[in-house]
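Exercise 3.2. Students should predict the tertiary structure of the chain below and write it as structure tokens, then compare their answer with the key that follows.

Predict this chain's 3D structure.
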Amino acid sequence: MDLIIPKDYDPKLDVKKTQEAIRYIRETFQDEFGKELGLSRVSAPMYLEKSSGLNDNLNGYETPVSFTMESLPNDTIEVVHSLAKWKRMALKQYGFTMHEGLYTNMNAIRKDEELDNYHSSYVDQWDWEKIIAKDERNVATLEDTVRRIFKVIKHMENEVWYKYPEAVNKLPDDIFFITTQELEDMYPKLTPEEREDAICKEHGAVFLMQIGGKLKSGVKHDGRAPDYDDWSLNGDILFWYEPLNCRLELSSMGIRVDEDAMLKQLEAADALDRKELPYHQMILKGELPYTIGGGIGQSRLCMLLLGKAHVGEVQASIWPQEMIEECRKHNINIL
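Answer key:
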């Protein structure tokens, strides 16, 4: 069991107050986030046909929860891992135009997740996507978007402090940008996870860029599906999380693949067979808009702002009984 127990942990808010704070954070953040990025809220599916190719393949080894339907006997239905590809299709189908975008409340099941303080098999996040011009597919666009997201997070810190001053977790005032290759050059003897901890402890908040491809060492910093993020124009928003003495990933995001980047990455991932799927064909034929998008963890944002020791304090999910009992011993109230 991979579990971090903070010394002398005090949850600050009881379960009822925590539930009240969760509602406030989720409702307030999505409104302010939508306004800042110019996004409209839409409804989203919980499952998709496997044949559509729209489900998120994550790192490639995770398998989705799947089932069959009496009304669709010739297809397998998959519970979403995320809506990374579905959103881009929705922008086209719903008639969104240049610099318009959408966000949605996404609920997913990732049954192969290794459970710990901030990983759950149940994923709840704001999935978002916005149309950009082809010549905006660059680092400047990416960094500007990250700064605007960080601005909303910082504003939420102030809002939460006003309502729950005894519970709010103090966040850094700025976010630091670095690539995975620069990080490897800086800490060549550390593992990718140790590098993230080191840079986050130094700067407090970090946007780690260019995740998915191999580094000079011949290994990847981390895995990424080859058919939605452009590995040269993506990244993770990370915070140094004092309650657990480690980094906390809040968001994975990036500028999405164009036709050239997708072919290159499919080949690198030995996944050229995906070219024949409907979604991939639309990208190769230039039928989908160029976009930037990502996901922001709802429970993780609540955890981050309230200084909670376990994501299970802000999310109702399923955990090993051993983990639940160990948490109870240390005043960690799993919902």
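Discussion points: The mean pLDDT is 92. The longest helix spans residues 139-163.
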